[in-house]
Design a protein that fits this description.
Elements (H helix, E strand, L loop, with lengths): L18 H10 L8 H16 L5 E5 L5 H9 L4 E6 L2 H5 L13 E5 L2 H10 L4 E7 L20 H6 L3 E6 L2 H13 L5 E4 L8 H8 L5 E6 L4
Parallel strand pairs: 1-2, 1-4, 2-3, 4-5
Antiparallel strand pairs: 5-7, 6-7
Helix pairs in contact: 1-7
The structure holds S-adenosylmethionine (SAM).
S-adenosylmethionine binds next to strand 2, helix 5 and helix 8.
C-alpha cells in the first residue's frame, strides 16, 4: 500500500485556462466569507503560545496533516517558532510514536481552517518569516480548479503570507499554476523538480516511495 500511491490522473495537462482571470477577480473583489470563530480562537491561542515562547521569527506549516513537517521545521529552525495548522483534529491528535526524538520546544499545532487563518494573519499583519504549503490536496478535475489554493478566493491572503513561501506537490501542473498565480499577485516565483534526500512529510515519503515525480515552487521577498 505504502509504495503504491497512484500518480495524478487529470484531463488537465497545463495551467488552467481561467487562472489569470480568476486571480484577477480575487484580487479585485474582497473575500466576504465570515471568519469562523473556532479558527479565530485556535489561531489566537497559537499566537499567544508564540508570544509566550519569546516571539521568535514565525513559520507557518499550512495543512500540516499529522504534523511531521511541523516537528522537522521546528528542529531545523531552532531560533524560530512553528505553527502547524490543519483542519483535521484526527490527524493533529493522532499518536506521534513515529517521532523518535524528544519533541522540540518551539512549535504548536492549531486545528483551524486555513481559509480563515490566512485572512486573519493578513488582517492582523502578523509577520511570517517562512510559510510552507506541503502537498495540498490537488483537486485534479478541471471543474475543481476553484478548490485548488491558486483558484480559491483566499489566494491573495495566502500569497501575502511569508517572506519565504514554498509549495510542494506531486502534480507539476499544480506547481506551475501556483507559481503563475504568485507572479500575478506580484511575487517572484521559481519552480523546480524536487528530489528530497529525507522525506519531510508522510505524503512526500509515500509519493517518493511510489516513484512519483515531485515539484516545488519557491518565492522569496525581503523580510518586512
Ligand atoms: C494531502 S494532505 C497533506 C498533509 C501533509 N502536508 C503531508 O504532506 O503529509 C492535505 C492536508 O491539508 C489539510 N487541509 C485541507 N484543506 C484545509 C483547510 N481549509 N484548512 C486546514 N487544513 C486543510 C487536510 O486536512 C490534510 O491534512
Amino acid at each position: 500500500m505504502f509504495a503504491n500511491s497512484r500518480t495524478i490522473v487529470s484531463a488537465q495537462s497545463d495551467v488552467h485556462d481561467h487562472l489569470a482571470a480568476r486571480v484577477a477577480r480575487h484580487l479585485a473583489e474582497p473575500f466576504r466569507k465570515p471568519i469562523g470563530e473556532p479558527s479565530r480562537r485556535a489561531l489566537a491561542t497559537a499566537l499567544e503560545r508564540w508570544q509566550q515562547a519569546g516571539g521568535a521569527p514565525l513559520i507557518l506549516d499550512a495543512g500540516c496533516g499529522v504534523g511531521e513537517s511541523t516537528l522537522r521545521l521546528a528542529t531545523a529552525f531552532p531560533g524560530h517558532f512553528v505553527i502547524g495548522v490543519d483542519q483535521s483534529e484526527k490527524r493533529l491528535t493522532a499518536g506521534k510514536d513515529w517521532w523518535e526524538s524528544e519533541m522540540p520546544p518551539n512549535f504548536c499545532w492549531a486545528r483551524a481552517d486555513l481559509v480563515d487563518v490566512w485572512r486573519l494573519l493578513q488582517a492582523e499583519a502578523v509577520p511570517v518569516r517562512r510559510h510552507y504549503v506541503l502537498y495540498p490536496n490537488p483537486w485534479p478535475k478541471i471543474g475543481h480548479f476553484g478548490r485548488r489554493w491558486q483558484g480559491h478566493a483566499v489566494f491573495p491572503a495566502l500569497a501575502a503570507c511569508g517572506d519565504y513561501l514554498e509549495c510542494r506537490s506531486n502534480w507539476q501542473v499544480y506547481i506551475d499554476e501556483f507559481a503563475q498565480a504568485l507572479t500575478l499577485v506580484g511575487r517572484p516565483a521559481q519552480t523546480e523538480a524536487w528530489h528530497p534526500t529525507q522525506a519531510m512529510t508522510p505524503f512526500e515519503r509515500k509519493y517518493a516511495a511510489s516513484g512519483h515525480g515531485l515539484w516545488r515552487c519557491v518565492s522569496e521577498r525581503s523580510p518586512g
